[in-house]
Specification:
The structure holds two protein chains of two kinds. By secondary structure, chain A is mainly alpha-helical. Chain A has one domain (2-137). In chain A, 78% of the residues lie in helices and 0% in strands. In chain A, α6 (87-104) packs antiparallel against α7 (112-161). Chain B has two domains: 24-196, Fumarate Reductase Iron-sulfur Protein, Chain B, domain 2; 204-517, no CATH class. Chain B has helices spanning 8-14, 42-47, 69-83, 85-93, 105-110, 117-132, 134-139, 150-160, 168-172, 179-192, 198-210, 218-236, 258-261, 265-283, 305-322, 334-346, 376-385, 407-412, 417-426, 457-463, 465-478, 488-501, 510-517, and strands at residues 251-254, 287-289, 326-329, 373-375, 401-404, 482-485, 506-509. Chains A and B meet through α3, α4, α6 and α7 of A and α5, α12, α20, α21 and α22 of B.
Chain lengths: 169, 544
């Protein structure tokens, strides 16, 4: 578990770089705002990213509890599912973590044991991406469901108002 | 968005998600599905004699504009600069300090810089500089000026309909620039070319024709209230008898038609009916509904000042026809911006009504001295203050409530404490959201100013994120399950917003809770609230 210790030590740097890479998916001025506004109510996107990414890193290092992962990943994906991203762009930040980690521990990676451990660790990042995929689809389905329900309710009310439906008493 | 799926080779080429790094003037407009509302129906536009009624589609290159459209915009701009001093001042005095930049819910939620209020205003200012200032004419882009083009016009349309005119940005502007007024002017200019959205154009056409946005005819309006009479009787055993178009009534009541026809606003409407019944039985309060002035809201505000005036005029006309003493207004958002800020100069002052005085407490509503129209939350708060309502707060014990300050009552009329006073007197469990998300700093529902359509749901979800995020906080911290508000658009917009971001929270109106708590002489023992949900402690009972 050498890798786990190294990642724990470098966690704050890695999470910061990971955050920066997500911020870069937005326009320059927006990225600045996401990074600098610390109040989570004034900056809910940045807030859910900073809380979420750190917690996800903890899960990757310590164990993969799906419920915990979903609780932190859901708010991030839920936001990106309605923003101007394609599905790939909305979730690509997860794979970005591989690059961030490899850059952050480039020296240590020369050791074969750590390099081997990293390959296993990266499988966990892939699992994270799959969970993100589930959440993304769930969010999109919810959007369509909301649209369908709004339309259904409107049509039903119109029929009801026109006395065109007869309900079971 | 999943409907923009790329092919594998495009996917690989596009996987690096960094956006282009260009200046805002050089970032091309991309009208994205989910972010815009359908174009105005030409029949609605024609029925109001508004310009350039024709079918058109924002996604097509040709917007079917008159050949001289640039002249129309130029002249319209000049006319408004001359007519509205505030518009001219707002065009000139912005120093681009950025105080407003990160205060807009659409910017916070979407991350699109053109949703920064300063930049949204720059869309118009850049043309203003080019066409109306010497510096702009001489130095052009160097001083932030640019020529009007079709792309600029499309950008106006796209972003001016991504502003809910909520005025949160103006709270933070050191110069007091009201960016909502810039949006209002921009939309007026767009309307000169027939560039409205249908969620506004058809409601105003309806309102002009039948008196309300939904196009409900008088008999259907009455039918709907009659349904509520039956529901109320089932729940309370009380038969309420609403009065319609009663000449000589003391008070005319006007509320948004959304409360009459759209859940969950309908429960607020039932609340009003039960409340008026109580006041009539106990104090003889004589209130009438109108099937003509059957709309409190005014989507004319989102179209042009002329249209706003035209639709608003029915309130005073009906008050005069019925000969009432004053008008009581229901829970609505933008309706109160129109009443509080514009009605008196547009269609008033009236000489046929009295200064509003509560016949029960004798309180004079000084703030409504000129308009003659009182907000129901103020009226109720006054009754509670004088101990005139018999209330059982425990009937709302199944609700853990937080309060969403609707933008216009909060920022356009300063009504901050009255609803809270009422809530605290009808509920035992009330929790505030964080201070930078309520009162003057309240976050918009994301669907105001005519944007509560179905086709722009992504926009609405993004715009409502800051509000939902604060609700989620109080839900997780205190177990809040109810988001209360005093606005009919909120009651239509917030339920889907909650369903997406905080599905455990339901939305209600202030007077729904008032009526839940109100002890009415002769009523049956209440086992459910107005929605038929069991009261706390009654969950196990067989509710028939």
């Amino acid at each position: 578990m050498k890798l786990g210790n190294i990642l724990s030590q470098k966690k704050s740097t890695i999470v910061k770089k990971w955050f920066d890479s997500v911020a870069k998916t937005y326009a320059e001025d927006t990225a600045k705002f996401l990074k600098n506004q610390a109040d989570p109510f004034a900056n809910p996107v940045g807030g859910s990213l900073s809380t979420g990414l750190e917690a996800l890193m903890d899960e990757l290092i310590q164990g993969m509890h799906r419920e915990t992962i979903v609780s932190f990943l859901d708010p991030i994906i839920r936001i990106r599912a309605v923003q101007a991203f394609t599905p790939s762009k909305a979730t690509a930040f997860i794979f970005k973590l591989k690059q961030v980690i490899r850059q952050s521990i480039a020296g240590e990676l020369k050791e074969k044991e750590i390099a081997d451990e990293l390959l296993t660790f990266e499988i966990k990042i892939d699992e994270l991406a799959l969970i993100a995929f589930d959440i993304y689809v769930e969010c999109r389905e919810k959007i369509y469901e909301l649209q369908a329900n709004e339309m259904k309710n409107r049509t039903y009310s119109a029929f009801k108002r026109a006395n065109l439906v007869s309900e079971i008493e | 968005m999943s409907d923009e799926l790329l092919k594998p080779d495009e996917l690989i080429a596009n996987i690096e998600p960094a956006p282009p790094r260009k200046g805002w003037m050089d970032t091309p407009i991309n009208i994205r599905k989910g972010m815009y509302c359908y174009a105005s129906n030409h029949k609605s536009v024609a029925s109001l004699d508004l310009p350039n009624a024709r079918p058109w589609n924002p996604l097509e290159d040709d917007w079917k504009l008159p050949e001289n459209w640039k002249d129309i915009i130029f002249n319209g701009f000049r006319e408004r600069l001359d007519k509205f001093r505030s518009f001219k001042v707002f065009m000139d005095i912005c120093v681009r300090c950025g105080a407003c930049a990160d205060k807009c819910h659409f910017f916070i939620g979407s991350g699109d810089p053109k949703n920064m209020p300063v930049l949204r205003a720059e869309l118009l200012r850049s043309i203003y500089r080019n066409d109306f200032t010497t510096a702009g004419k001489v130095f052009g882009k160097m001083v932030g000026a640019r020529e009007m083009t079709m792309d600029v016009l499309k950008e106006w349309w796209y972003y001016l309909f991504q502003c809910t005119e909520c005025r949160r940005c103006s709270v933070f502007c050191p110069y007091g620039i009201d960016t909502a007024e810039i949006t209002i002017m921009g939309r007026e200019l767009l309307n000169l070319l027939g560039l409205n959205i249908d969620w506004i154009a058809t409601p105003i056409a309806n309102c002009n024709r039948t008196g309300n946005h939904l196009g409900i005819q008088p008999h259907a309006f009455k039918d709907m209230l009659d349904f509520f009479v039956e529901d109320i009787e089932e729940i309370t055993g009380i038969t309420v008898e609403p009065q319609y178009n009663k000449k000589g009534a003391d008070i005319l009541f006007i509320t948004p038609s959304g409360d009459v026809f759209a859940d969950p606003g309908t429960y607020t409407c039932m609340g009003y009916m039960l409340y008026f019944h109580f006041l009539k039985e106990k104090y003889g309060l004589d209130v009438t509904w109108s099937t003509y002035a059957s709309e409190g809201g005014n989507f004319g505000l989102f179209t042009s000042h002329e249209m706003m005036k035209r639709l608003n005029s029915k309130m005073y006309a009906e008050a005069k026809r019925l000969g009432v003493k004053w008008i009581l207004g229901g829970e609505c958002g933008h309706m109160w911006r129109v009443i509080n800020q514009y009605m008196d100069t547009m269609n008033g002052p009236t000489d046929f009504m009295e200064e509003p005085v509560s016949p029960i407490t004798g309180t004079k509503f000084e703030n409504a001295k000129s308009t003659k129209m009182v907000h129901i939350a103020e009226f109720t708060a006054d009754l509670i203050k004088h101990g005139k309502l018999d209330l059982d707060k425990s009937r709302n014990d199944h609700l853990k409530v937080t309060f969403h300050d609707s933008c216009n009552p909060a920022r356009a009329m300063g009504m901050l404490d009255e609803p809270r006073y009422v809530i605290n007197n009808v509920c035992n469990h009330f929790y505030e959201m964080p201070s930078n998300t309520i009162r003057e700093q309240t976050f918009c529902c994301g669907s105001g100013a005519g944007l509560n359509a179905g086709e722009n749901l992504e926009l609405r979800m993004m715009g409502g994120l800051p509000r939902a995020n604060a609700v989620k906080h109080v839900h997780e911290k205190y177990g809040v399950n109810t988001l209360s508000c005093v606005c009919a658009i909120d009651r239509a917009a917030l339920p889907p917003l909650m369903e997406y971001w905080v599905p455990e929270v339901e939305v209600n109106g202030l007077h729904e809770m008032v009526a839940n708590a109100l002890i009415i002489p002769g009523e049956n023992e209440r086992t459910t609230d107005l929605r038929g949900e069991p009261l706390a402690g009654m969950e196990g009972d067989d509710v028939e």
